[in-house]
Amino acid sequence: MAVEITDHGHPGETDRNDALAALALAAGLPLVATGNVHYAVPGAARLAATMAAVRARRSLDEMDGWLPAAGTAHLRSGAEMAARFARYPGAVEQAARIGAACAFDLQLVAPRLPDFPVPPGHTEASWLRLLTMQGAVRRYGPAGRERVAGAYDQLAHELTLIEQLGFPGYFLIVHDIVEYCRRHRILCQGRGSAANSAVCYALGITGVDAVSFGLLFERFLAPERDGPPDIDLDIESGRREEVIQYVYRRYGRSRAAQVANVITYRRRSAVRDVARALGFSPGQQDAWSRQLDRWSLPTRSALPAQPTQTAVPGQSIIGPEHDIPSAVTRLFEQLQGFPRHLGIHSGGMVICDRPVGEVVPVEWARMPGRTVIQWDKDDCAAAGLVKFDLLGLGMLAMLHKAFDLIRDHHGRDLDLSSIPPEDPAVYDMLCAADSVGVFQVESRAQMATLPRLRPRRFYDLVIEVALIRPGPIQGGSVHPYIRRRNGAEEVTYPHPLLRRSLAKTLGVPLFQEQLMQMAIDIAGFSPAEADELRRAMGSKRSAERVGRLRGRLYAGMAASGITGALADDLYTKLSAFANFGFPESHSVSFALLVYASSWIKLYYPAVFCAALLNAQPMGFYSPQSLVADARRHGVEVLRPDVNASAAQASLVGVPPRVRLGLAGVRRVGEDLARRIVELRRADGPYTDMADLVRRTGVTVDQVEALATAGAFACFGLARREALWAAGAVAQARPDRLDDMVFGADVHTVAPYLPGMSAVEESVADLWATGITVAGYPTRFLRERLVAQGVTAGRRVLVAGIVTHRQRPATAAGTTFVNLEDETGLVNVICSPGMWARHRTVARTATALIVRGRVERAAGVVNVIAERMWLLPVAAPRQSRDFR
What we know:
5-stranded mixed barrel, alpha/beta, 5-stranded mixed β-sheet
């Protein structure tokens, strides 16, 4: 116990501190001087007051009188503290002693993994070795006659290192989770650095053969690594919770918990909270937050002092895209990146050999059946907690649904391992950029790259996945690789010794594993040293480690005859590459799913469409765009029907057509849709609307939504007739006699109602399901658009529904807008100046008319926008903006 004194320069503080010092002396307690710090520097006082108002859910005016009058609660140096508390000898030194006494090494509380249960007569190491060798026979064939040369030698090397480092239990835990997924038909695959391991391949944790691809094991596990290896398990998103609950059951609720995630302020949340603290109305807060996104152009307070100053050569800085007052922008720009609240990590779980609460505080999550520790993944790593990443992946859910539809409708049992490999027709489809809905290669940038890269084998897909990433784009790797791939540029290497590491990527570094191989080849690094170099260069707080390894790297290069300017140049290249290289193992894992989803899209387009609809939300495109793409591939899509639809989208007839599910109708939802289908199967089809209401208990709002979607066509009712009757039939209940609901018989009670026009039906479809099955809404405007000159040419006028707005960090302020009509998609490129001139309509319009110039390059067509204006179309806004 001690007596604390502070000095913020407030009136009366000296008298109070004198009294506290006398009290400490009388009680025989130590006197300790603290700063009672609330912010780092005096200039942050205003921001700290704003944050106090945010926490109190009050405005700064309402907080007046409760906050300090001056900004003096900031950090001070030791000399400043000593001078400030000179009249209290020893008080500052006492604070230093208490701080030193409170310090401890987090490794003191580091837990172990629980012992994995193994059969009698086995240790964890021997059991892992047995499971690995059994799997190796299935994957590689018998030892001595393996299908991949060197496979068993690599397995022996990896198993020896795993045993030396004490990680057999870690691999057994991951294998057990994967086996649970296999037993319960949950699609799962190890992703990332796990693909660098032949042991993970033999155990079935990953589908990537590290030996065949020549992936470095030391990228995955090395003696110098801190802690266990990092294995990410991708699990189909709809069933990840089953796997999480299995881990809780397997290891005990008290010994497993999920990892927290620190949610930080972004532009929209920051402007909302700051505007609230400054006393602006909720409506104004909402309006300003909608004007911003992650890649918004600079705010007024962030712009350079000189308007003519340029941020990018040849590109002038333009004004901000909003009208937010400078008082708000100054504060919310400072607030960005600050912690806002705790969430749950997307997949991280820790497992301990003791109750997790003995190591770190644990709390119940809002979601039932989950407990969460109060630390994030970096804190967990510092404390020695072992984290397992169980990540939900929507594409795995889609593939599982697709395999089920293929089995049920086509009688063919498939899985990821049985899809025919290296099909030339699949690559033909991708070369044509026909990749809407395909995993990883459906974005605007990927679709622009596919015709130029022209993939013809699996490894080309590995390259494609890694190439269109912020790192390679910023590192200038994209265009040189494509030019070399197409023979327009000679393949060269910075040094002959780098041919081994860079040959497969034509002399252009793309992967982190190549960084490691480069260090091995030019400087004689061991694989473990190379991985340490990779991690040091890629870390933001690694100056000391990089400096130590820099000397080692230069010495190694000198031993190889590389000195002077060439050594400096290679070091610069390695340093830059470490920050943007994508792991090859990640690319290989993703490429497997790229090929699988492409193959299904090519040979089973109806299955592909239905499975994607059932796996929503996921991917780059909305259900409307997915259905439009399926329609362009000859797939017929049918509206929902209470007597024909399943809960989700299904296949009917031969050739298969896609029938939309009832769960996709607004206000219906999954639970009610399943109840409608189950009761229909159990007691027979519904005879009329009243029968549906009586048997299922649907509300009037739900009846109206089904009527708007055209789901009562099976009763011979047009949509307006069904809507007219909705209020009456909603009165039908099990306790009422049949035919006793007044107004339920539309044919006798309803007046003559004109049917909906095609335009009205399209609007009704969009309202009820978000999908127009009969065609794209722009078809109704085609004659008018043609009359306006929306045709092809050097200068063109294009029009369509806005599906995406994007402004990548690498685009220097350029915005990309995707438009879609009944004929397909077009990519519109908007310069910063053009966007600023048309910012209101550009940001808010559901559909646009754009005048611009056609740009064609290597089979890719874009429109460089010069003007744009609103296209009036009766469709709800559903574009995917700035994600």
